[in-house]
Amino acid sequence: MIETPSSYVDSSESEPSSSYLEGSQVASFTSIGKNSSNTSSHKVKDKLTILIINFQSVRNKRTELHNIISSCAPDIIIGSETHTDNDFHNAEFLPPNIPAEQKYQIFRKDRKELINKSGGGVTIMVRPDLPAEECLDLDTTCEIKWAKVRTSSNEAILIGAYYREPKSKIEALDELEKSLSKIQNDPSYRNMKIFLGGDFNLGDIEWEVGRPMVGARDKVHCDKILQMSSYYSLEQINNLPTRQGRILDLLFTSHPSLIQRYITCPPIGLSDDDILSVQTNIKPVINKKTLGKVFNYKKAEWNNIRKDMSDFSEEYLRTSISKTVEDNWTTFKQTLFSTMDKNIQKKVIKGKPDIPWMTHKIKRMIRKKTETL
């Protein structure tokens, strides 16, 4: 049975609502919408899609996360409450032996980098074929991580992941403001489009009118985030509740006109927060990369290789005694690689999905599901 999105907002009234589910838009393992059924969805992307996920520990959810990536192919994932530390490697976010196009770039900040306390943590996951780099110079002493992602217009957008723990001190927002101030004051970032998402745990704000609710909890914090968004010209676009009727997971942007549609979707695993899925009008650039070249030894000119190495051996035996071990090794390696490059043809290795449970029957069922949506 296919579940529908929890909630849905179309920011583009002139287009039919069904178009939201076309192309790269989301569908999850509990299913959140429509998408191409397999990894071919990475080939054609004309709408950059962002998922905002509160993991409540990514440690035990790598299968669920992989299912989301397999069926949704989001361009960017903004994650909070990762609960990771130095003992948890980036490779553990997802299962082993997955296709190369699903091995997302991971930029993260663990809570233990700030204080000796478990929990928390944020991450930005970017599709491997999107040019991206983390922005360490924008870090401050709060749970914030920034990454720069190139778009098809050869411009860069700034993606931020933020987490504010419930009952935090006001310093958590002060440090976020310091990070935004760095962006504003640095010419290399000043004109970039900003998308800042995460779980802010400030559910007592009426975002449509821009004020705290009557009797709001953490009113000082609510006032602070409203003041910051106004000062730095950031608009919060999500008006859909993500947890128990409250709007906790937010997305601020400097360019709200680029937001086409957004929905909330069922949580990942047993997390309490719905996933926020946002479709933009940005067309992402795709780096078309091969996985590399390997020597095709069946088409090697072995006689030429033997002659080259035989000639080298005479010179090597005559001069090696006067050289260091390191010099001898370097000379041998360079000579060997040189003759291999000249005398052995190469072939390109292409990525092949290695998901044993993704059979042709299952792929047909996924295609049938997406067609019905």
UniProtKB/TrEMBL annotation:
Gene3D superfamilies with a match to the protein in the record: Endonuclease/exonuclease/phosphatase
Segments of this protein annotated with the region Disordered: 1-20
Cellular component (GO) terms are: extracellular matrix
Residue ranges spanning the membrane: these are none
The biological processes this protein is annotated with in GO are: cell adhesion involved in heart morphogenesis; larval heart development
Where would I find the Endonuclease/exonuclease/phosphatase domain in this sequence?
Answer: 158-272
Q: Which GO terms describe its molecular function?
A: catalytic activity
Which InterPro entries has this protein been placed in? Endo/exonu/phosph_ase_sf, Endo/exonuclease/phosphatase
| A Pfam match | Exo_endo_phos_2
Coiled-coil intervals: none
Name under which the protein is recorded: Endonuclease/exonuclease/phosphatase domain-containing protein
Question: What is the originating organism of this protein?
Answer: Patella caerulea (Rayed Mediterranean limpet)
